[in-house]
Design goal:
With 299 residues, the chain is an all-alpha fold. It has one domain: Farnesyl Diphosphate Synthase. The chain is built from 15 helices and 2 strands. Strand 1 and strand 2 form a beta hairpin. It binds geranylgeranyl diphosphate (GRG).
Length: 299
């Protein structure tokens, strides 16, 4: 099936089905008492979420004609890593959220110890999947995927951003400091999702640079949109509590710039993201539409 003939809504739904099937394959239920942790992993990662990161992996890979069975594995891997971050972020020691994706968060549905283990095992499995031969016939490509994900998710990426966030509680950050925090905490994984398609497709350095730039700008626009939703969205639409940033006295670009300027900034980033794709022509139209959707979304 050529996904480029579909509308963005249909293409997102098609990707979600492919990723769901890949997750089902990649997370089989074992016998024995360890089945509980796999149950919790499946609860956290399957049947929910917008699958935006997965879509970015599969659409950037399709620019280079990558086999969708391979890109679906990388898409499933990034969704596992993302789900681990949400499971751990929801724990009482972190953000202490009872709801995620419209249902009880993993530590509420299971227990704290199981949620910690499920997060750990999702993180581990994400890297294992990338390293397995079915992901790409070229071992160099598999190594590059592992290195890039490690960079995006570790202390110089998402975990580092989370640490800065926790260390900043009660402090007043400048707009630049907030921008850096957010680029690490949420931006790097979104950026990786676009870069992964370039790695799978053995893109040349310029193509890879353009896709990294696209991912960086989509990530920044996404985070501002998330902060706007925290102010304007309803818990029903968003699938978790809103108004948490203001209640925690947390500075965001919205609280510093105000809603109107924050919206203008998100729109500017969304347009800039689309511009990076010009040289890919018409086959990049769904990725360009995604950049617009990221700032227009209600959940
Ligand atoms: C605990 C190591 C560790 C890291 C946590 C990403 C993160 C760092 C925390 C998530 C907290 C949060 C709500 C951040 C705002 C942006 C964000 C990542 C929102 C959730 O992503 P979506 O909207 O979620 O893509 P779905 O459910 O659609 O996949």
């Amino acid at each position: 099936m050529t996904i480029t003939t579909l509308s963005l809504t249909d293409a997102l739904a098609q990707t979600a089905r492919e990723v769901e099937a890949a997750l089902d394959d990649l997370l089989p239920m074992p016998d024995g008492a360890e089945a509980r942790v796999v149950n919790a992993m499946r609860y956290a990662v399957m049947g929910g979420g917008k699958r935006m990161r997965a879509f970015m992996v599969m659409e950037t890979a399709s620019l280079f004609g990558v086999d969708r069975r391979c890109s679906a594995r990388v898409a499933a891997s990034v969704e596992m890593l993302h789900a681990y971050s949400l499971v751990h972020d929801d724990l009482p020691a972190m953000d202490d959220d009872d709801m995620r994706r419209g249902k009880p968060s993993t530590h509420k549905a299971f227990d704290e110890a199981t949620a910690i283990l499920a997060g750990d095992a999702l993180l581990t499995r994400a890297f294992e999947v990338l390293a397995e031969p079915d992901t790409h016939s070229n071992p160099e490509a598999r190594c590059e995927l592992v290195v890039a994900l490690g960079h995006a998710a570790g202390a110089r990426g998402m975990v580092g951003g989370q640490m800065i966030d926790i260390a900043s509680e009660g402090k007043t950050l400048t707009a630049d400091e907030i921008g850096r925090l957010q680029a690490l905490k949420t931006g790097r994984l979104i950026q990786y999702s676009a870069e992964a398609g370039a790695i799978l497709g053995r893109a040349n350095p310029m193509q890879r640079h353009l896709l990294v730039s696209y991912g960086r700008d989509v990530g920044a626009a996404f985070q501002i949109a998330d902060d706007i939703l925290d102010v304007e969205g309803t818990a029903e639409d968003v699938g978790k509590a809103t108004g948490k940033d203001a209640a925690a006295g947390k500075a965001t670009l919205v609280s510093i710039l105000g809603l109107e300027r924050a919206k203008l900034q998100a729109d500017m980033l969304s347009r800039q993201a689309a511009e990076h794709l010009e040289s890919f022509g018409e086959k990049s139209h769904l990725l360009r539409e995604l950049a617009a959707l990221v700032v227009a979304r209600k959940s």
